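User: For my dataset I need records formatted as: sequence, then structure tokens, nothing else. Please produce one.
Assistant:
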Amino acid sequence: MNKKSIITILAILIIPMLAFFGLTFNKGTSTMAEANGKPQIIKFSSTMCLECQELEKVFKEILPKYQDKFAYTEIIVDSRDDMKNNMIKKYNVTLVPTVIMLNSDGTQYKRIESAIPKEKMEEILKGLK
């Protein structure tokens, strides 16, 4: 085999691997908000989930209005580190998107396991205390 053939074979093997790791490497980083006695919203999502992307649009519209009223935490489940695994187990998350809403005393107020319209989300947020 000549040098050109070896380089071609290596390129055929290595380029797809690099593309895979580049596309799946933790695009989004999880953010953990401090509750400080406020109600808390924990959103579990994935970068490859279409419903998660729809729900993200809803939250981007709503968050500015309510940012002082509750703590918002986003968990991107694509990469599995210990903090994420503990949160996934703690709230028994089996699918994404999942939104867990906790009252200021830490009790669970609502659990949503799909994308919902902005109006419905605002209605639910009004009951969060």
